[in-house]
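Entry 14. Ran structure prediction on the chain below.
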Amino acid sequence: MCEGLAGELDARGSGLVLRNVAGGWRLFTHPETQDVVERFILSSRQARLTKASLETLAIVAYKQPVTRHQVSSIRGVNSDGVLRALADRGLIEEAGRDEGPGRPLLYGTTPRFLERLGLPSLASLPSLAPLLNDAGEGESVSDAVDGGLEADGPAEMEAQPEPDEG
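Output, structure tokens:
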């Protein structure tokens, strides 16, 4: 059966190859697609977020749609540079305009954000309630939220000790 599947994959030009290895069967990347897959994997390993980026991303994820001013107000510092960096990475995007004075831009997360955290939907984000309870025990809410994202996300979402931008 595996030999038949290996032949099917080869006949249709699949990006996968099924090979008999050491008495068992194993899926491999097709040699012609190796460079593309390798670049994809290596690019995600190098993409790390600063503590400021994680904090801002958590605010956008839990409060979206949210304005730049609302994010800066919650963080207590200007967040323009961090929002731009997150948008450049494809983790947040413009999600419309607020109806308030000046019609400021609204930000929300992207499907790439969900992919990077390994979540099927925003409803799968961890609840903030336990984090808010823990925050009363010597930890700020933003630290608790950062810790939740850091612990639950893949390695590329790790915080790096860098000063806030802006």
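The CA atoms of residues 11 and 95 lie 44 Å apart. Will compare against last week's run tomorrow.
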